[in-house]
Amino acid sequence: MIQVAGGRAANLGQSGVRSLDVLGCVLLLAGPVALVLRQVEPLAVLVVTLAACGIYLALDYGWGPVFLAPVVAFLTAAIDGSRWWTYPFVPACFLLFVWPLPALLGRPVGAWTVVAVLGWLVVVVGAAEALRVRRLIANLREQRFDAARRVEHAQRERFACEERLQSARELHDVLAQGLSLINVQSSVALELFERKPMQARSALAAIKKASKDSLDEVHAMLPKIRRGLIDGPPADDKIADLDGRRYHGKRGGVSGRLGLPPEAGAGAAAEVVPAARPAPAEAPPPAPRPPEPSMADLDAVVRRARSTGLAVQIKVTGTPVTLPADIDAAAARIIQESLTNVIRHAAGATATVSVRYAAETVELTIDNSRPLTTQTRSPGGGNGIIAMRERAHALGGALTAGPRPSGGYRVAARLPVRTAPPLKAVEDRPAESDAEVTAAE
Q1: Which domains does the chain have, with CATH numbers?
Q2: Please, which pLDDT band fits residue 235 given cuts at 50, 70 and 90?
Q3: Which residues pair with 362 in a beta bridge?
Q4: From edge to edge, which strands make up the β-sheet containing 409-416?
Q5: Which residues pair with 247 in a beta bridge?
Q6: Can you tell me the distance from the alpha carbon of 161 to that of 139, in angstroms, rounded to the nearest whole number?
């Protein structure tokens, strides 16, 4: 209606032009009606509006707001479509509608009119390019926002995998060592039950203590495992900071979609922020966990192995230093797991634990002598060597294990004295079974 009313007023204000009739009104309405479909077929709508405008001018209805519909159609097509298909319409329309074709057909146009129309065409093209660039920037910002969320999600997944792997290692350390000791002591109790009941009683007492310690450690680990299962990923309304801008609300919100400052999208963000939930009831504090074994007290580290009757000798060279918590726990676990393998696979052998402190590393060597019998107490395979190697590699160290030339078995580990970078990739190593820990010969 604006184009029709404006065209009517412009037609009445010009002399020497054809009076606006029904056909002229239809041509003025054709462009705005076609604009309804500009989002579906932008290029076709642009052609229709330009055709209506050209026929209107060719019938000599005069100048007026007939150009409004072609301008809107051009902006839509230029933003959503290709420049190669839309921008050539601008010089073509100028040549056909303004100059020189009208002058050749005997309809001269004033110089100022030509300059004014040319200026407006430059403004329209500049506006189309500005809107196109703005759309591109908004899309790039959206892609970067999505990429940042995917990276954040991948990091959460990696951290979750690391935590699950760490929990699995701890469970293996606790249960495998405890059950191995129980297995060895129960075998001793069965053998000595009739002949030496007092020694069998001591073995049963060791079984009771080992099972109780293992149960206590497992119960202490349960709250951590439950938290890992219950805690889900952060909600979508988490704020992400990209290029110094804050993205509030969900990804579909106004601020997150266009990268506007918080004030611009406060209304939209308010719609997606979930209502405050009542704070959950506080869970009872977890049971106190037994202290982790520490390299500062090697006697405590090997105490459980000695309680089974294994003779363990300790040698320390170099100046002991305080190790980071994760390296200290890993070193102690490696020693305990190695001694457990000696108990399981080398009946009657003795063990030597050597610790060497260097400037950048701490080196662990666990040797066991030749077993007294070729029959091991706990035949079969396991994952002890694999778990120890993964622990060492995750911290930036290395671990080797294999038979000694003189008989027996050796586990050698080298760990850094400083914490390795987080999420360090674990190198792929060939699978190895605890069945290799057969200190025969």
Answers
A1: 2-109 (no CATH), 243-272 (no CATH), 291-441 (3.30.565.10)
A2: very low
A3: 357, 415
A4: 312-317, 351-357, 361-368, 409-416, 398-403
A5: 240
A6: 33
pTM higher than 0.70: no
Query: Tokens 């921008």 correspond to what residue?
Result: 87
Side chain identity at residue 106, one-letter code: G
Query: What are the residues whose beta carbons fall under 8 Å from the beta carbon of 107, sequence distance 6 or more?
Result: 60
SS3 271: helix
Q: What is the mean pLDDT of the chain?
A: 75
Q: What's the one-letter identity of residue 418?
A: R
Rounded-to-integer distance, Cα 253 and Cα 250, Å: 5
Report which of 417, 400, 414 is spatially closest to residue 363, judged by C-alpha positions: 414
SS3 for 108-122 is: CCCHHHHHHHHHHHH
Of 90-94, 386-390, 401-405, the range with the highest mean pLDDT is: 401-405
DSSP letter string over 175-244? HHHHHHHHHHHHHHHHHHTTT-HHHHHHHHHHHHHHHHHHHHHHHHHHHHHHHHHH--PPPTT--EEETT
Tokens representing 223 are 């709250």
Per-residue pLDDT, averaged over 265-271, amounts to 40
Label residue 379 exposed, middle or buried (CB < 10 Å: 0-12, 13-18, 19+): exposed
Number of Cβ within 10 Å of residue 74's Cβ equals 27
How far is residue 177's CA from residue 334's CA, in Å, rounded to a whole number?
11
- 329: Cβ contacts below 8 Å, ≥ 6 apart: 292, 293, 294
pLDDT on residue 137: 93
Residue 21 backbone phi and psi in degrees, to 5: -120, -165
Contact 77, 37 (CB under 8 A): no
- Using pLDDT thresholds of 50, 70 and 90, give the confidence band for residue 234: very low
**Residue 141 in tokens:** 């910002």
Tokens representing 248 are 């509030």
Place of tokens 């963000």: 269
pLDDT value at 144 more than 90: yes
